[in-house]
Amino acid sequence: MSVSSTHAPCEELLLTRETPVQRRRVRAAWLFLTPMLLCLALVAAWPLLRTFWFSLTDANLADTGGGTFIGFSNYLFHNGSSWSGILVDPQWWNAVRNTLHFTVVSVGLEVVLGLLVALLLNIKFTGRSLVRALILIPWAIPTIVSAKIWSWMLNDQFGIINHLMLSLGLIDAPLAWTADADLSMWAVIIVDVWKTVPFVTLLMLAALQMLPNDCYEAARVDGIHPLKVFWRVTLPLLMPALLVAAIFRILDSLRVFDVIYVLTSNSSSTMSMSVYARQHLVEFQDVGYGSAASTLLFLVVAVIALLYLYLGRRQLEVRS
Amino acid sequence: MIKLKLDNVNKQLGGARILRDVSLEIAAGEFVVFVGPSGCGKSTLLRLIAGLDSICGGDLLIDGRRVNDLEPRERGVGMVFQSYALYPHMSVYDNISFGLKLAKTEKTSLRERVLKTAQILQLDKLLQRKPKELSGGQRQRVAMGRAMAREPDILLFDEPLSNLDASLRVQMRNEIARLHDRLGSTMIYVTHDQVEAMTLADKIVVLNGGRVEQVGSPRELYERPASRFVAGFLGSPRMNFLPVRLQTPGETSLVNTLVWGITSLPFDSSNLAAGTQLTLGIRPEHVSLKAAEGTAGVVVTAVEYLGSETYVHLDTRLDEPLICRCEVSAGWQAGDRVELLLDIDNLHLFDADGAALSRHPHAIETLPDGVPLRSARASAL
């Protein structure tokens, strides 16, 4: 009894008391972290807080400092008879819908195609390293450039895509890829998938090369069908990398701007949250309103990212 | 009954010849161990048998059927990998049953099979665990269970114990031996550990540079090595080798031991020329010592105490010391002068290419009486 009673405080003491070595380590850790924290504060926290502040004012682009504080009126405002503000703007909700639509379809396609290409490139064949390098080209071209290239290829009169499809007899008349409301979202998705599949492929390929080779040999000796091996061994083992690739792509897609703006400008059928924010900030010169849209965009991205990370981690925990 | 036959099997990999004309017969139920230094081709040979690598030349027959071009699953083999190769995300049960599901075995019998296998390997309490929650020995058992559960005719082991610590290795070695007795299946086992080879094997295949050096029971290989390589590879501390020159060839050979003068040895050297360089081999346990008087004999340079025995190093005025395995009670110390007694029954003589000279059956009687003898048939050098 006496042993245990003296034991507990002793342990507590050991846990709480910092030795000089520990103190030195903590100091060193802070020393190394400080530049990074300063950087983050400068390039992330400050713009974010400033944008949030603008969103509470009626500042305009000509004179950003001249705005007055108007509270949350940019978000939601009741003037006695009707509601106004972003949260009741059908254009905003249209942009949210477009962005989600774009994100789900393009990320879905990118992950599936990226995985398929990675599986192909994981097979040994002559010239594999050359193909691996070549496949990165779409990812290496700046989006503005590649979107412009595609915009010409998709041009309804002079575009090569229409020309090819016409001569193959797939269509009777040229399609207005970027102007047609039903087609433009697909055009945007095709271009984005073309550009970012290499990125997913690269991540998947790295993960594939980490997989234990001997497991596949064991499966071969045991005569397990390759498809079963894929579903039961490869895919579960790739899941962590797949989730990482997907979250990267989801976050990028939720903020999508350049590909949509270059291909379809401000068309409402493809307008994303970022395009909406830019329109208000730059074209309508309404910095307050645009900042409010940006802040909401940030919130949507943050909520989805946190939810995804939480669910992803829980799923991984269940699996392991 | 011949279960597996290798007929002049060759394997080339990017210009390098990994295996050269390997021919071998393995009987049903036999425990065969492939042993050799790293890079000798033993693992490659096992992978060829499993079907994980393809054969470049020669034939591989299982039950009399040529299986060169068959997929691993069609060969009826199971394999235990050095790294265990367990599926990291699956439980022990799933790891064992994964390969079974395909066989369209009924659900109940599948479960029974897994449970039976688990029971044999004492895994029944671990079935729901993931590989990372198991110790090295347990993982090893799961790997064996997975290979066994399909009840293959031939079980292949690729250095299965090399990732375990020493005591666990001894324990698992015994378990594998028991398993072989119990299952009675043909087992082929690759190792670089000569103790595993000696203790487990019915038949040892010593490989060197892609060639089979010698095939035989552990005892045959240890007592009558066919080559200097086999003689030096098996046994620890390894066999002592002394350069000697052939003085007079014949059914018994008169050799000049360079160190101790000329002596007659019971080996047939009729087809060799006088003056040929030979190597005399003697295992440390076949050398005995007695105290020398005055300045006679050789000097003890070092004594290694191992508890159960001591290794006495002797200065033979050659590059390497001669090592002698002695009882602790003999109490030899560095600086002592000793005379050597070599057991003539256990001497080995190798030609310049390392091949063992054949022992002359009647030579022993014709030996001249040596001076101090260890036994009736021992000679002092």
From TrEMBL, chain A:
Transmembrane segments: 28-49, 100-121, 133-154, 186-209, 229-251, 289-311
Ligase is among the record's keywords: no
Record keywords: Cell membrane, Membrane, Transmembrane, Transmembrane helix, Transport
InterPro entries hit by this protein: MetI-like (IPR000515)
Topology in membrane: Multi-pass membrane protein
Endpoints of the signal sequence: none
Domain ABC transmembrane type-1, chain residue ranges per copy: 96-308
Subcellular localization: Cell membrane
Family assignment from sequence similarity: Belongs to the binding-protein-dependent transport system permease family.
Name under which the protein is recorded: Sugar ABC transporter permease
Organism: Pseudomonas farris
UniProtKB/TrEMBL annotation, chain B:
Keyword terms of this UniProt record: ATP-binding, Nucleotide-binding, Sugar transport, Transport
Keyword Nuclease in record: no
A Pfam family hit: TOBE_2
Protein name: Sn-glycerol-3-phosphate ABC transporter ATP-binding protein UgpC
Species of origin: Pseudomonas farris
PROSITE patterns assigned to the protein according to its UniProt record, in alphabetical order: ABC_TRANSPORTER_1, ABC_TRANSPORTER_2
Top-level division of the source organism's lineage: Bacteria
Annotated ABC transporter domain residues: 4-234
A GO term, aspect molecular function: ATP binding
PANTHER family documented for this protein: MALTODEXTRIN IMPORT ATP-BINDING PROTEIN MSMX (PTHR43875), MALTOSE_MALTODEXTRIN IMPORT ATP-BINDING PROTEIN MALK (PTHR43875:SF3)
